[in-house]
Amino acid sequence: MLRTHTCGELRLSDANKHVTLAGWVQRTRDKGSVLWIDLRDRYGITQLIFEEGKSPAELVAKGRTLGREFVVQVEGVVTERLSKNDKIATGDIELKVTAITVLNAAKLPPFTIEDDTDGGDELRMKYRYLDLRRNPVRESLQLRHKMAQQTRTYLDAQNFIEVETPVLIKSTPEGARDFVVPSRVHHGEFYALPQSPQTFKQLLMVSGFDRYYQIVKCFRDEDLRADRQPEFTQIDCEMAFITQEDILNMFEGLVRHLFKNVKGIELPSVPRMKYDEAMQRYGSDKPDTRFGMEFVEITELTKGKNFPVFESAELVVGINATGCSEYTRKQIDELTEFVKRPQVGAKGLVYVQYRTDGTIKSSVDKFYTPEELGAWTAKFNAKPGDLLLIMAGETFTTRKQLNELRLLMGDKLGLRDKQKFSALWVMDFPLLEWNEEAKRYHAMHHPFTSPKPEDIKLLDTAPGDVRANAYDMVINGTEVGGGSIRIHDRATQQMMFSHLGFSEEEAKKQFGFLMEAFEFGAPPHGGIAFGFDRLCSIFGGADSIRDFIAFPKNNAGRDVMIDTPSTISDEQLKELALITKK
Amino acid sequence: MLRTHTCGELRLSDANKHVTLAGWVQRTRDKGSVLWIDLRDRYGITQLIFEEGKSPAELVAKGRTLGREFVVQVEGVVTERLSKNDKIATGDIELKVTAITVLNAAKLPPFTIEDDTDGGDELRMKYRYLDLRRNPVRESLQLRHKMAQQTRTYLDAQNFIEVETPVLIKSTPEGARDFVVPSRVHHGEFYALPQSPQTFKQLLMVSGFDRYYQIVKCFRDEDLRADRQPEFTQIDCEMAFITQEDILNMFEGLVRHLFKNVKGIELPSVPRMKYDEAMQRYGSDKPDTRFGMEFVEITELTKGKNFPVFESAELVVGINATGCSEYTRKQIDELTEFVKRPQVGAKGLVYVQYRTDGTIKSSVDKFYTPEELGAWTAKFNAKPGDLLLIMAGETFTTRKQLNELRLLMGDKLGLRDKQKFSALWVMDFPLLEWNEEAKRYHAMHHPFTSPKPEDIKLLDTAPGDVRANAYDMVINGTEVGGGSIRIHDRATQQMMFSHLGFSEEEAKKQFGFLMEAFEFGAPPHGGIAFGFDRLCSIFGGADSIRDFIAFPKNNAGRDVMIDTPSTISDEQLKELALITKK
């Protein structure tokens, strides 16, 4: 080793030891008679000291030549500091340097290697290896490591076997777009990269593996929205001989284990909510339950008073923004503008101010008497000081819009603390989802999800009403995982494929192996997959997943550090029998 | 759960318990008055019993309808067996069945689900999910899981951080062929799948991650030799601020930890051997050290006696096949045929039989006196009963050929026991390797390997003599891992690229980001990668890696179960702006 200790290791109890350290020059302070250098490695920072008169002159001179981010090896004697620094673990000591070796010089980095850097996004991505030196980024990846460790600890203890499934698989038209890999040996044929190991983990259940998991890279060639990556990581799990209840308990256990062992937080047991209820109470299938502000429906109370908007509305529904009654006209106008943005798409917003003096003022005073408005405030359990924000229209759309407003108000009222965590199971999702563009139903999760047995009879008459044995784990308003009980018999699977518009031939070509497997003794089974990047970012209290991925791609799917995708040689194209159209 | 216990769990102490099991019908024995069924799951086998007269008639009848591999749930009472089976953990008990539910019927499997199956390779690959039900295959994958677990346990304890590196990277012409992935967004551009995370792990060292590891999928689009897979898994590691000595100690520690914790074997400390010495003593850079039979050079003893073959030979070298002096003429002819096969390519074989009666007989009696041959046997330390097998010719070639013969004799003499393990470090490899086809030197490991500082001066005059700071871990004659101390400064790296025939422009296009990174403070670093599939197969005592991979591809790179690679839709090709030539 080029060192006897790390830069985070030395304490007062090491005083007078002769040690060797190695690391990067973080910072130099030159007071003329004394030169201090902060030496940094992954483990911490140790202060080096050179003293004019006491240290050999050449040594001090050499210390002065060291620039930021130089890599050096230093020998010296551990000494108690005069002015201690209680912000760092090594703050009681410094190293009186006796020898120094420059292991590698460094050009001035294009941005400062500090917690708050002056580097913009693009520059930091291009020099990602320098960005990774910054504490917050390194700590995010250390958190990720710990999350993976603890995930494995939990699942190993529960008798899960980690099995690697293949990366070079087969393209399937269902779901998102596949990345494909041309075969050099079989011209005109392609492998595809997996969007998930779904069919393989089901086959492992058919094989009797009983409990499978994998922390695995998956791939999706989609137009990237902000904070989406073409390659992403899942905690992928499957169990056999279980009911939905067993899966919910097992993976609630995982999430609680992670909170306890990674964050030191005892998460209470995870409540469960049906999809229909989540939509009704929060207008979202992934409600942020860190705060209340639940939807209150007042449709009946608003009818017959000639207010055209409410009169024609299928649903009139609102939230109570407690303590906001004294919002100014400007503030309320901003909320109205927010819901009218195309991303939200509402036509307008009705407000009722239950003033601190007990009076009620609203934007619909013309249509409703103070008594009628009083009935509203009563239904909302509002108190003087509260502000009701009300929207109206078609049920599903209005709920979605009010959900956006609720989240905005949660932000404004400081109710979405990133260091507070609230988890929720959302269950009983619809099996099918109408696709307006394709004019047919798609599987909401995927075509292997089992319908609730009692709903199968609705498949022909009311497909949209069929519920699935499917569940999502939601934390702080983000879906971090989802899964289902699978179909495990050929007849049901074949029926599902036909309902999803697969011809028999297509189904056989794409999933023939799975349907055949179901005929050789497939056990009842189900599973779940967690989005590992997102889960890490939530544990890290961050909005973006990017700093929880060592080498992420930008929003155009490009790695600007290594500059890929890029052209390949004509020889490579020829071997693959491919022609590219420009 | 659809069960209260697994099929491997019940013991005599559970007698009289009412339990529920679920699993597959392994086997049925029907004695008329009694029906036994072996029920199997991942955890073991439990015997079910139905008794005519005692059990309800419908139940017995139902039991009789169950075919092989049916999936059933059974309830029953745990009972002591009359005739116990000490071969299985549950052999003291059986389950008196009180109720049975068929969870899924099964067609007759295309081969028997037994330890020794009647299924051929191709059939087993097509129905891999059935093959995976067989004990030996499932146990191989359980071993792999344990290997991964223990690898992580060791490296985590040594402060390594597991970091995921990207799968969609950039194609580089050096090394084997890349698989490429066409970009839909950037037409005419491609990602490539990594042959290893080499450059990324080096960048992580530049970032100060200090100790990195990853158990990671890698990809190589090569013409598949037997037992090679297009996708394979590495234990990939890198350390900063270390010397070669530190790496050897750290990863010898890993291998010994694995032997201890996976196999219960205390491996002695791993000996080290220089490449030159390995070639001289064994004719191989990956000698099988489970047995001796080392090379003995007798060039000097053979000269001046007018035997043309030895007279013209650069090297005369042999092995002592102890106890083989009484080999028949036919046996010796077979050995001669073996070395003359094109795969070995020798011109012939000289033998000296040191007969049990003390006489010496050889194929070169015409040229050498018994006294002269006696000097040979003395040099070989041969005893009556031994057989010397001697080859001659150009040094490197002759050693390679004799190595093949040595391994064959090791097999014949039972010296290559798959349950015995012998590990070895081979060190000081040549840096460069002459490529006859390209008429230039290639990097023997990869272009980032550092030359030994004292040899750098030879780079211009005798490139083939330059040694590298490179090392391989060899177990039982198989290279299971290899690594090197890396170049960590731009000047040396640039010089290496130029010696390897990269133009400055090419080097910049392919590895500009790495060379630039070396200018921003790169620490001294080095690492190693283990072939995980191969390591598992050696621990499992198997010749092939195939059963240590859940879903392997065949020798044509095809997954015959899911039938990939396969064609993709015209729409997909259009989106990728690709035309395939047929």
From TrEMBL, chains A, B:
Record EC number: 6.1.1.12
Assembly and interaction partners: Homodimer.
Reactions catalysed: tRNA(Asp) + L-aspartate + ATP = L-aspartyl-tRNA(Asp) + AMP + diphosphate
Molecular functions per Gene Ontology: aspartate-tRNA ligase activity
Annotated ATP binding sites: R220, D221, E222, Q229, E479, G531, F532, D533, R534
Record HAMAP family: Asp_tRNA_synth_type1
Similarity field: Belongs to the class-II aminoacyl-tRNA synthetase family. Type 1 subfamily.
InterPro entries: Aa-tRNA-synt_II, aa-tRNA-synth_II, aa-tRNA-synth_II/BPL/LPL, Asp-tRNA-ligase_1, Asp-tRNA-ligase_1_N, Asp/Asn-tRNA-synth_IIb, AspRS_core, GAD-like_sf
UniProt region (Aspartate), positions on chain: 198-201
Name of encoding gene: aspS
Keyword check for Nucleotide-binding: yes
Function: Catalyzes the attachment of L-aspartate to tRNA(Asp) in a two-step reaction: L-aspartate is first activated by ATP to form Asp-AMP and then transferred to the acceptor end of tRNA(Asp).
Domain called Aminoacyl-transfer RNA synthetases class-II family profile: residue spans: 141-565
Enzyme class: ligase
Keyword Ion transport: no
Keywords: Aminoacyl-tRNA synthetase, ATP-binding, Cytoplasm, Ligase, Nucleotide-binding, Protein biosynthesis
Subcellular location(s) per record: Cytoplasm
Pfam hit, one: tRNA-synt_2
UniProt name for this protein: Aspartate--tRNA ligase
List of residues binding L-aspartate: E174, R220, H445, R486
Superkingdom: Bacteria
CDD domains: AspRS_core (cd00777), EcAspRS_like_N (cd04317)
